Amino acid sequence: MKNFPDSVVRWGILGAGDVCEMKSAPAMDKIERSSLVAVMRRSEDKAKDYAERHQVPKWFDDSDKLLNDPDVNAIYIATPPDAHEHLTRKAFAAGKPVYVEKPMARTFLECRSMLEASLRADLPLYVAYYRRALPNFLKIKELVDSSVIGEVRLVDIQLHKPANPDIVATTNDNWRVKPEISGGGLFYDLASHQLDFLDFLLGPIETATGFAGNQAGLYEANDIVTGSFRFKSGVMGSGSWCFTAGDISNIDHTTIMGSKGQITYPTFDGSHVILETGQNGRKRFDFELPGHIQQPLIQSVVNDLLGTGKCPSTGISGARTNLVMEQICYQ
Fold first, then answer.
1. Which of 41, 94, 205, 329 is least surrounded, with the fewest CB atoms within 10 Å of its CB?
2. What is d(CA 186, CA 164) in angstroms, rounded to the nearest whole number?
3. Same domain, yes or no: 50 and 117
4. Residue at 170 is within a domain
5. What is the largest CA-CA distance in the chain?
6. Confidence band for 1, pLDDT divided at 50, 70 and 90
C-alpha cells in the first residue's frame, strides 16, 4: 500500500449515528496525531447536532462533499451494512483509506468488491472488529499462544437471548433484523464479533456449515442459527445462537477446550476470562474496558496509517468472517 501522505490522520465520518456517540468517534480526538474533522448524515439537522455536541468543525448531508473535502484524509464508514460497499468504493475513488463498521458488508461478494477496490486504489481497508484489541481478548490469546491449556481441540459458542434485552431487537423497525440492510439479522450483528475473534485467535476457519431459521416470527430475519466449523489448524468448533429464548436460558458463553485445560469467557455480558487446568485449578481474570470501546483498535489503525504499527483487523480478515457466516446460514 502507498505511504500515508500526512503526519496526522484527519477523520471524516459517513453516518454519525448511535455507534459514534461513545463507542468509536470520540476516541479519534483522544488519540495522538488523530482528529475528527467532519461528519455526515443524510439529515442536515442531525449532522449539525452531532457536530455541535462533539465539537466537530464540519458537517455535511452529502457523502460526496465529505469525501472530497481536502481537510479529510481518512474515512470512517459507520452506516448500516447495506451502504458499506458503495461508500467504500467511493472513498477509495477519492483517494482515502477506509475504516468500516462490522459486519464488513451484507455478503461475501460485496466484501470481495471492497477488497478489489482497495487493491486497485492501493489503499488500506480496516474493519471495526474491535475485540481484537481489547485487553480481555488479548489475555485469551496470550493464554492460548502460551499453551497453558495445551493443544486446542474444540471451541463451543452459546449465545441464547430473550427477545427483550438491550442487545436484541424485538421488532422489524430495527435495521439489524432487516436482511436487505444488515445481511442476516442479529446473527450477523453479534455472532460476527465471536467468529472474527476466533479467526484472530486460532487462524482462519477452513469450512463451515449449519442451519438457520425463524421460529418466533417477530421479524423477517433468522432468529435461530446452529453451526459447525473447522479451522485450517484442525481445531473443531460449534455454535448455537437463539434470540428468542426464555429468560432461564439466557447465556453468553464461549469455551475453548484444550488438551490440558479450558478457557471460558463472555463476548457481550462481561469482560472476565476464566482459566481452568487440571494442574492449577480455576483462575479468574477481570478487566476494565476503555470508555470508548473502539479506541484501542482505532489507535492501531492510526499507527498503521502513520507507519508506526499494524492493525489486526483488515478487509481480508473481515471478509473471511462474512464468508463463514454465509456458509453457516445459507449453504
1. 94
2. 13
3. yes
4. yes
5. 61
6. confident
The 3-state DSSP class for residue 119 equals helix
* Averaged pLDDT for residues 255-269: 98
Quote the number of domains for the chain. 2
What does residue 108 show for φ and ψ, rounded to 5 degrees?
A: -65, -35
Give how far Cα 319 sits from Cα of 9, 141, 232, Å. Answer: 25, 21, 16
Which residue segment(s) compose the domain that 59 sits in? 9-130+293-313
Do 100 and 194 fall within a single domain? no
Q: 149 near 261, Cβ under 8 Å?
A: yes
* pLDDT tens readout for residues 154-203: 999 999 999 976 666 666 779 999 999 999 999 999 999 999 999 999 99
Q: What is the helix, strand, coil percentage profile of the chain, to 5?
A: 35, 25, 40
CA distance 171 to 211: 22
Residues paired with 33 in a beta bridge: none
Q: What is the DSSP letter of 168?
A: S
Which tens digits make up the pLDDT trace of 13-23? 999 999 999 99
End residue of a domain, out of 274, 289, 304: 289
Q: Are 259 and 153 in contact (CB under 8 A)?
A: yes
Interval 139-146 mean pLDDT = 98
Residue type (1 letter), 88: T
Specify the pTM. Answer: 0.96
Question: Quick check: 77 and 98 in contact, CB under 8 A?
Answer: yes
| 214 three-state secondary structure | coil
Please state, in angstroms and rounded to a whole number, the distance separating the CA atoms of residues 262 and 94. 48
Asked whether residue 326 is assigned to any structural domain, the reply reads no
Residue 161: closest CA among 228, 218, 211 = 218
> Are residue 139 and residue 284 in the same domain, yes or no?
yes
Which helix (H) or strand (E) segment is 53 a member of? Answer: helix 44-53
**Mean pLDDT to the nearest integer, 98-111:** 98
Chain-centre distance for alpha carbon 42: 23
Tell me the chain's radius of gyration from C-alpha atoms: 20
For residues 124 and 167, state if they share a domain. Answer: no
